[in-house]
Amino acid sequence: MNGTFRAHWADRLGFCKVFGSPLAFRCIKSDGGPVPLTLVGVTRIYPVLYRERLKNGGSIVRSDRMESRMAQQHNQRCSVLVDHVISEYQRQVNSSLLLNDSESEGAKILKILETSAEPEVLMAEMSPEQLTSFATYKSKLEATRQLEMEKSIEKALEQAGLNDRDVVPFMRIRVVGLTNRNYHGKGRAKEGIITIWNPTEKQESELVEGQAYAVSGLMPMNSDSEILYLQARGSTTKWQPLSPLEMESFEPFFCPRKPMKLSNLGEISLSSEFDIAAYVVYVGEVYTASHQKKQWVFVTDDSISDPQSGLSNSLLAISFCSPSIDDDSFAPINSNLVRSMVGFCNLIKKPKDQMNHLWVAEATENSSYHLNFNPSMSHLKSAGASVQAWAKTSNSIINELRKKVSFVIGNCEG
């Protein structure tokens, strides 16, 4: 970074005067300790995930969709148990034995009223002092009863394994070190994956792909020849966006997302990430393998318009998985998605199924899918509209594709 830009940057950002000059991203070492300040370009922002620490010491990561289901199920189970405990408690409790001062005037009045045929008449004849004693005792009684009931609920929840879940949200961001236009060194820019634990609402909503930032509060975790892995806490990590003028001092780093078509899938390398707008042809049954629930989903797009031209390479098989520890009713993909137009993001290209002429992809933790094109999927909107229009007039092709999927599944089961 040249001196003029550094001076401008330090003047532009107040916290640079606290943290000092930015450390070049390529110079960060995995064992070098906290990074006060560095400059990065954001190339990809992945969906927010949730890690739950389990009682056996392990942990499990879920998508936003799966975490919402788990939270709903947990709350339902808790509600049923709490209602049961309250009902049992109210039926069994003997209010006259709840307090040690059962011989007090207020306690004696309560006993008399409980056995009286006309308690209202007795209360009307009481002195103000007696009414005060009764009200004071009854208030203490209710407070004690509430406390005992809460203890019973806590004990029941603990025995049922339904006490509070230990869940922490996090998000991953793929970044690249910025290269100054005046830099003449060799080698490609260093890439990194930043994991933000407990990201703030501002970070979730305002971090943007294609924007460069000055970032403070990062901690390197490990590194390989290609990628540096770092983590941070949302509340202690500051992301200051560079202005368009400041970004002009660096080489371009961003390749915008674009929709991939099946007809072009051969142009990208294996393990590459891609996004696609596709029509769901078939959602497979859930099966368990390697402690995970797995499911295959077969999709197509408008790459083929004439069934006479053949159906080779016209299907994409996507492998989805989720932790098998979850309730069996939680399938990775709902079968109701069949015949829907869906946008998929961050799929990973896998080796092609040459025998069945199928493209294959894997949906990882960082993958997401949506039926509607929210801002994070706006780049798929036009492609999605095209696929949807194609599907309405291509019943014969879609039926042939379903037959092909049935044939493939039949061979696998055989």
CATH architecture of the largest domain: Beta Barrel
Largest sheet report: 9 strands, mixed
Described by its quaternary structure, the protein is single chain
Content-based structural category: alpha+beta
Distance between the termini: 63 Å
Low confidence ranges: 1-19
CATH topology of the largest domain: OB fold (Dihydrolipoamide Acetyltransferase, E2P)
Helix content: 25-40%
GO biological process, one term: regulation of DNA-templated transcription
Domain Tower: 51-92
Protein name: Protein BREAST CANCER SUSCEPTIBILITY 2-like protein B
InterPro entries: BRCA2 (IPR015525), NA-bd_OB-fold (IPR012340), Tower_dom (IPR015205)
Q: Can you give me a brief rundown of this structure?
A:
The chain has helices spanning 3-12, 16-19, 64-92, 105-115, 119-124, 128-159, 201-206, 244-247, 381-392, 395-413, and strands spanning 38-45, 49-53, 59-63, 166-177, 191-197, 212-216, 219-223, 227-233, 238-241, 273-283, 287-289, 292-300, 316-323, 341-353, 358-370. It folds into three domains: 22-51 and 168-247, OB fold (Dihydrolipoamide Acetyltransferase, E2P); 64-159, no CATH class; 262-413, OB fold (Dihydrolipoamide Acetyltransferase, E2P), CATH 2.40.50.
